[in-house]
Structures are given as structure tokens and as C-alpha cells.
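Entry 14. Ran structure prediction on the chain below.
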Amino acid sequence: MARRLLMQSGMPYNDLFTGEEILTTSPFDQVEEAPAQDGDAASASRYDDLLGGTEPAAAVTETPSHYNDLLNGATSEVSEASSDDLFSELVLPVAEPATLPLRSEYRGEDRDASFFRGDAGRLSPLAEYPTNMVGPLPEGAERTRFTNVRTRYFDAREQMDRAVQIQGGLLTDGNDRPLDTSGATGRGTADGDKGKHIFALTPGGTMRAADPWAHHREVRLPGQADENGVASAALELVNHSSLVAGGDVAGAGDLRVEQGKLQSVSDQSGHYQPNHTMLRNVLDHFADGGVDMHDVAVKMINKTPFGRPMMASAREVMQGKGEDAIRSQRSVMRDQIEEAASARPRWKDSMDARRGRGPKVGRVRHEDAKWNPGAARGQGRVGAMTALFNHFSQ
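Output, C-alpha cells:
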């Protein structure tokens, strides 16, 4: 069946040498019952070999790079997949954002946070004067039952007080005293670990930190106490969003500091879920301020469901290694250690080599061991060590 060759514009395709319109036949044109019409998309996307009269086996798209060699009739072998490969090097990876807003599910937490904190009444035992407290109360105090739980947002003055400065390589609080997190109870943090503060790094480069439980508040709600003298109150807890009043952050997590010396940093924050770029922002903030990062540990929270956290050194993260790269490097190192350990002689083999020469160290008999007069109970320290030695030398 004859079919007129068309360019993508729909005009007839003329021979480059004679200028005549070219008509060609194709043994593969069995689908169409009539000659293809001008401008037809199907005829524009498929065309015949100009000289041999054979149709290319592969369908050709409308991409201008797909064309027939006008001299030898060969079809340019540029498929859609290979075309993508040609431009794959030009596609840049999507960069992680350097700042993140508060996650949408936490909007309105400053009015009601029960959707992630749970029922307020369940938290009533945490009150300063709970309902089950016995004995006399201080003058003016009331037993409290929480009927509302919400997030406390710091005002501008409170945010300034929570600012963390770097002086001489040490972290200081808003009163220019060395920051120390060892007294933190761990209440209000995601994992409940003691001795750490939560922090947030603002897009402007200001670091703020706080002990969540030390800065929580109990706000007496209007109304009279009930017949048992129990008043209603709101429990205001502190989160990472408290440090920026629900604004954007360039980093968030928790840190451990002892007398101004930074010990560890993590990117654990459910309110913001910072990425690895933001974690590097935090480490760079400390390093640029003169903090010695050589002994600083970093806890990287895995962002996948049921993923495990990973401990790394600050230097590894600051070198630009992502979590996947560090895990892969650790896996290679583990394989190398196991391979080296398997090549060492086994303990049994080394003992067999000494057979016939007597034991390397004779067994210690308990009755020959020196008695510890200070051990009033049990077999004493010497007896315990003797038993342990004999157990492993059998």
C-alpha cells in the first residue's frame, strides 16, 4: 500500500537530489486500510526506508533526533531510553532544602497538642501538686488536674534568653555562663534520655537551646476549684518549635554539653525532621564558631519507617558523607575485620600446638590463694577471680 512520506509539519517529503515527491511502499503497512493522510500523527511518527522500501522495525517518536540517514537509508538507532541516557548527565540532583517549616500536622499545637501528646488528664500526675498528693500544701497552692495540654511558644525575650553563644570554643547560655546539660531530667524529649537539651538553629544563624521540662509551665485556667479543692490547669510543654515560636529552622535536634564542652549532637526532631544538609548546617555553625569537633559524636536519626539511628563522628558528617555512604563504609570495614579475624589461628589450635609442653600458666588452686580478710561475705574478691581464671583455663 502506497503511503506519502510526511515531515512533522505535515508537508510532503521531497527527494533532496531531484526535488520530486517520493512515494514508497512498505510490506509492513498491514494495519492501515487507506493511504495515510497529510498531517496524520501516525504517519508522521513512522516512515519508510527511503531507498530500500523497508520500514524501521522500531517505532520512532516525534523527537527531532530520530531520523533516517538520507544516503544509506539506515534508521538512526536512538531510542527513547538511549535518548534519556544522553541527557542524564545534564540532570542535576535535587538539593535538600537548607531550611524547613514546621510540619503541617503540628499547626495549632500552641492551643491544643493532645493529638500527639495524648489526653491531658493522663498527664495530671506530672503536676507540681497532683490530685493524689497527701499532706498540707504551701499557702496559696492547689491540687491540679490538667484539662488541656499545649505547646509553649517562647516570646521574643524568652528566645533571647535561650540563645547559645560560642566563646573561646565553649558554649555559653544567655547569661554568658558555660552551658551544661547534665542536670536535664529527659522529660519532654523524644527518647527520655537524661542530660541533654533540645536545640533549634534559626535561618539567620542563631542557636537556641532549652531543657524541655525545666521550662514547661502549668497555667491555671479560669474557674473555681471543685468540691475536693482540685483546680483545672493547662500543661504547656516545650518542643523544638517553642524555640522559634513555630517558625522555620535551619537545624534542630538535641545536644549534650558538659561545662561548655560540646559532647554530642543529634538531628532528632519530629516537628521538623531535619535532613542531612541541615545537620551539616548545625555542625558547620559550631565549627565556624571555634568549637573543637574532633571528639564530638553525632547521632543520625534514620528517616525511614522503623529505621535505626546511626552513630558517627562529626568529622565524617562534615566531610559531606551522607547516612547511606557512612553505612556502606562501615559495612566494608566490618567485612574486612571479619576476614582478618577468620585468618587468625583459633584458640584451640594454639593450645594443641603447646600439647606435650605443659600449660603456659598453671592453674591457681583456691586453697593456695591468699585470703582477703576484708571479704566478710561470699568467697571474696580473690576467690572470685580464682574461680573465673579456673573456669576459662579448663
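Residues 323-343 form the longest helix (21 residues). Will compare against last week's run tomorrow.
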